[in-house]
Amino acid sequence: MSIAVTHRGPAAAPVPPEPAPAPVNYLNVSHTIWSWLFTVDHKRIGLLYLGSISVFFVIGGIFAALVRTNLLMPNGAFLSEDAYNRAFTAHGVMMLFFFLIPAVPGVMGNFFIPLMIGAKDLAFPKLNIASWYVFMIGATFSGWAVLVGGIDTGWTLYPPYSSRASQSNVLPGVMGVFISGFSSIMTGLNIMVTVHKMRAPGMTWGRLPLFVWSLYATSLIQLLATPVVAVTLVLLMVERAAGIGIFDPSIGGDPILFQHLFWFYSHPAVYIMILPGMGVVSEVLTCFSRKNIFGYHAVAWSSMGIAVVGFLLWAHHMFVAGISFYAALLFSLLSMLVAVPSAIKVFNWTATLYRGSITFHAPMLLSLGFLVLFTVGGLTGLFLATLGTDIHLHDTYFVVAHFHFVMVGGMVIAYMAAVHFWWPKMTGRMYSDWWSRVASVIMIVGFFLTFVPQFIMGYHGMPRRYPNYPQEFQILNVMSTAGSSVLGLGYLLPGIYLPLSLFFGKKVGANPWSATGLEWTTPSPPTVHNFEVTPIVVCGPYEYAIGVDQMGRGLPEPPGAQDDPSHRDGSTGPSGPMKKETEVVG
Predict the structure, then answer these.
(1) Distance between alpha carbon 149 and the CA centroid of its chain, in Å?
(2) How far, in whole angstroms, is CA 59 from its chain's centroid?
(3) Residue 80 phi/psi, 5° resolution?
(4) Distance CA 149, CA 30 (A)
């Protein structure tokens, strides 16, 4: 009997399973440059705006640094008077027309309006990408004007200096602003039509997130006011190029007419910049205090109130320009009136925080900073709306400080809050929680150090736009410049840790903040068409009290349950309404 012996080799290692393919989303669906340049996806267009305005923010910040550094010395540290004029004009043009105005509507509006109302895209996708190209063409004109010699008229472009006397690059600069205005109109039109026509089933007007309300009010201003400034700029270019008397009194024009037309747009434009920030803060404060918004309808309609009343008070910039006493009284009263809806918002935000379960992540810190800084900016605006004090404070650094408390302390801080709040949704990655908190505190502290001294200088009579000043103001100017360095550091830090998070940040789930909006029911980053199935909205946008999102599903554990929000899986509860009866808003 023989036994067959078989020799076996070493046991083969099991074949490892193939890694699961990454889910297709709007970021990885295509990687070619053409897929970005010719995209009609609202999310990608939002990122195009994000990249563009970030560049212009840096350019505007560099010119601000030049201005503040020059003011270290009473006779100017290193810039000539002419170079100083061009530096502060470049700062104003870049920051106002190419950062502040498109920041939230262009980036966050494009990205999140469809997601927040349950739509697949904006109403006019091709118009949307066209608006970005128009914006870039306008920015190219104005950027070229700044780089090849600059503009020395101030961002307000008052004639006859801008129309006849200035020897700088006024025409290409004005042309750039004129062209970019069309981009603003396109974006506003797209958002308004989208909100009217593309809301998901159940998304009534009374269930719209307050961010959507604020963008809707902003779009109304963009549509009605921007054409006015466009016509004004055309008339300015005609006078400068052809010598036809429109604004220059030496050739038959009226310079006060320019101020009326310019401020008819430019004062509502302040609300184009600040209303979206108010919408951001409404979203963040409710999420990180785990409370329903206090007075939803009051906050929503106050946005519309600001948009409408904002058209009626342009001449409060002209109290010393020769308007009649009775007209000045009327515009002073109307300027007081616009404080009412703003105060309603501040009261309701504060009431929302009352007895809330507050956590202090970066978006919340920045939103609390907005609440304080915007309130200071608004209250100091009352001094400028009052006839007597405005004559004393007109064209002083008090105006500069007030404007920056509203625009930078309000809008820029709110924009930073929006970026930190929605960054995990946009990228699928979480940034450094510790560094983001440090940066938020540095920004707020640096802002106070920069602009509080300017209130004091302005009250004591230091005029704005002057490169030289009396010796007695030097200590305050040094404090302001030192504060601007701290503020610059605060802006620099997000420029480091946010890009790094794209490579080293932890992946997050759909809802890392445990928020209630529809945008948090999609994967992070969202899929190409936003929703696999059309969502059905069953309740209001801020049902934190009963812990459900707008589709009636339970929320994941809230912020603060663990130290690091990236550790949360962000999963939501089972589909369908909870057993507990939901409070339907609207």
Answers:
(1) 29
(2) 17
(3) -70, 165
(4) 40
| End-to-end Cα spacing for the chain | 92
Query: How do residues 532-562 score in pLDDT, each as one tens digit?
Result: 889 999 888 998 888 888 888 888 877 666 5
Would you place residue 584 in the very low, low, confident or very high pLDDT band (cuts 50, 70, 90)?
very low
- 3 state DSSP class of 554: strand
Using DSSP's 3-state secondary structure scheme, residue 349 falls into: helix
Is residue 48 a contact partner of residue 102, using CB atoms and an 8 Å limit?
no
Sign of CA dihedral 209, 116, 438, 454: negative
DSSP 205-243: GGGS-HHHHHHHHHHHHHHHHHHHHHHHHHHHHHHHHH-
- Position of tokens 């939501």? 572
Contact indicator for 104, 113 with CB cutoff of 8 Å? no
**Residue whose C-alpha is closest to residue 133's, from 225, 220, 39, 219:** 39
Neighbours of 182 (CB within 10 A): 18
For 539, left (φ over 0), alpha (ψ -120 to 50), or beta? beta
pLDDT at 404 over 90: yes
Region of 462 (left: φ > 0; alpha: ψ -120 to 50; beta: rest) is: beta
Helix orientation angle between 170-197 and 110-117, rounded to the nearest 10 degrees? 10
pTM for the predicted model, two decimal places: 0.89
Closest by CA to 387, choosing from 319, 313, 461, is: 319
Name the β-bridge partners of 463: 396
Number of H helices, E strands in the chain: 18, 2
Encoded tokens for 184 = 């603003």
Which amino acid type is present at position 308?
V
DSSP characters for 39-94? ---HHHHHHHHHHHHHHHHHHHHHHHHHHHHHTTSTT-SS--HHHHHHHHHHHHHH
Q: CA-CA distance, 122 to 39, in Å (whole number)? A: 13
Among left, alpha and beta (phi > 0; psi -120 to 50; other), residue 463 is beta
d(CA 30, CA 38): 12
Residue 14 has pLDDT above 70, yes or no: no
Tokens of 31: 């990687």
**CB distance 430 to 566 below 8 Å:** yes
For the stretch 145-188, pLDDT in tens is: 988 888 988 888 988 888 888 888 899 999 999 999 999 999 99
d(CA 462, CA 154): 17
Tell me, letter by letter, the H, E, C secondary structure of 500-539. HHHHHCEECCCCCCCCCCHHHHCCCCCCCCCCCCCCCCCC
Residue 275: phi and psi, rounded to 5, are -60, -45
Q: Are strands 506-507 and 429-430 parallel, antiparallel or unpaired?
A: antiparallel
